[in-house]
């Protein structure tokens, strides 16, 4: 963001400078013409503006050109200022610009004299320099004053830009600092809260489970209630951290290829005890064929968990909860329906906001934090899906959400040995990645540009172009520089050389023979960054 | 008489460490506690531990410093390490844990049943 602002204002500054120079050039042209008409009584004003004699014409062009050069010079002067003495403010001082203006004024004086000498063969150059005609003298002084004014204008223009730039940079820096502070704060809070929670829970658990002596019924009940409250406090901490991560946009999905049916089956299994305990029927309808999606398994489980916890909380014994997954081709539609108390129409729009609990239920069991649905919404949207609710007061509620079927990442495998490529393909085959291959360096670069893979697995010892050259090419090209790379090499890798050619994220290196687990972990990790 | 298997807990939160110690002792292990990074390293090197329960945020360095140091001692590097931490587990931490081949990871507050299962499977009594 920082560089973005600097670069943008720099290009705008150059445009301003060009316009100022063009404006000055035109003004100068008109003044010169007026002078010719008034001082030298040569022709009419239109003639002098549009059809001056060749010498006048070229002299004027020369002056305008010098003015533009002067503008560019001032710009570089400013750059120099920034790096040298005026580092603190980066601004140009008035005295400096006046000296430049005077220098230019003298140059202008000389050019004018040459012109006069050329136009009037009788008058020589020295005389034109030292004692021009009175009118000519005043005209020149006027022009020099004008130039000085122009210099000061340019100076102000540049200094103003510089000030704005600086203010923006400072503001950006502050924002970044605050952002970091917030993250640090949350991490610390998380750690500092979790440790005492863990201690309380551990103590209560050891007593409650009668590991340290037998308890009577009242004691047991008290400890169970305490443990439930501790669990609730812990959920609140976890939920707060989750929601702040979602809001900061820092939540990263660890996508992998999974059968959605497997996730839901596992979720169903986890809720069987609760359904028996509360006498609520739990039913699950799944598609017959596998429904392979590229999603974050933990996060999808979390969505179902939150919805099911809600359903159990608001459904009375004897009721029914139904989980359903439908394969809709481009996406999967999932739903959790209950026969619970339902939600009034006017409350529906509030449902996915933070800290909203409609119709809080008293009594024992799972207590909500009021964040569950806001987290669900964040997680579903991160997966490129939508979540919505249908409900009828007294009849029940159905939450539905979609999970987009994003294309599986494409991985380019580069190795000159065909059997190595096949082995790597074998290791990655379980995950449904789209695998493409290249057998030499230049083909690798070409394929990376054409196919835009999400990841490149690269051997270093390649014909035509070695691994370092391939990395160099990929990192220089705007079309491929953000594609993460994994080096798979049987030989040691020159990390110094690697650092020189790669100023992007560090490239992980795995040795050969390749350990499948290591490769798959690295692949998952790097695809995470590309999310 | 068979000597009891010895477990080292490296944890700076005294109360929590004490309770985990009690839990493990009730299972039949002998348990010692180290409260900071250096004591932790010293204990591992001079003791005869069969398993280490390690917190990541510790005074004087931290869990990763300990993991790094014991890599230099082949006979100690193979002791299974169970990480038990209140730290938020992000991609960075996961990567580090993979690098040191940590046997298991539990975040506070932990699931005590799973924890006991894991310890028992790593070091049968």
Question: How many beta-strand runs of chain B?
Answer: 5
Global morphology of chain B: globular
Distance between the termini of chain B: 14 Å
Specify Rg of chain B, calculated over alpha carbons.
13 Å
Compute the CA-based radius of gyration of chain A.
37 Å
Number of strands of chain A: 12
Q: What oligomeric state do these chains adopt?
A: heterodimer
**Helix-strand string of chain A:** HHHHHHHEHEEHEEHEEEHEHEHEHEH
Strand order of the largest sheet of chain B: 2-1-3-4-5
Going by helix content, strand content and strand pairing, the class of chain B is alpha/beta
Q: Can you characterise this structure?
A:
The complex is a heterodimer of chains A (about 525) and B (about 120). Chain A has about 525 residues and is α/β, with parallel strands linked by helices. Chain A is built from 15 helices and 12 strands. A 5-stranded mixed β-sheet of chain A has the order 2-4-5-7-6. Chain A has a 5-stranded parallel β-sheet with strand order 9-8-10-11-12, with helices on both faces. A two-stranded antiparallel ribbon of chain A has the order 1-3. Chain B is of the alpha/beta class and about 120 residues long. A 5-stranded parallel β-sheet of chain B has the order 2-1-3-4-5. Chain B is globular and about 35 Å long. The interface between A and B is medium-sized, with 25 and 21 residues.
Compose a concise summary of this entry.
The complex is a heterodimer of chains A (531) and B (125). Helix content of chain A is 59%, strand content 13%.
Outline the secondary-structure elements.
The complex is a heterodimer of chains A (531) and B (125).
Chain A: H1 2-38, H2 45-50, H3 54-83, H4 94-119, H5 125-130, H6 134-208, H7 217-248, E1 255-259, H8 260-278, E2 281-285, E3 292-296, H9 297-314, E4 320-327, E5 331-338, H10 372-382, E6 387-392, E7 396-404, E8 410-414, H11 418-428, E9 434-438, H12 441-451, E10 455-458, H13 467-476, E11 485-489, H14 495-501, E12 509-511, H15 516-529
Parallel strand pairs in A: 2-4, 8-9, 8-10, 10-11, 11-12
Antiparallel strand pairs in A: 1-3, 4-5, 5-7, 6-7
Helix pairs in contact in A: 1-3, 1-6, 3-4, 3-6, 4-6, 6-7, 7-10, 8-9, 9-10, 12-13
Chain B: E1 6-10, H1 14-27, E2 30-34, H2 37-46, E3 51-54, H3 63-70, H4 74-77, E4 81-85, H5 91-99, E5 104-107, H6 112-122
Parallel strand pairs in B: 1-2, 1-3, 3-4, 4-5
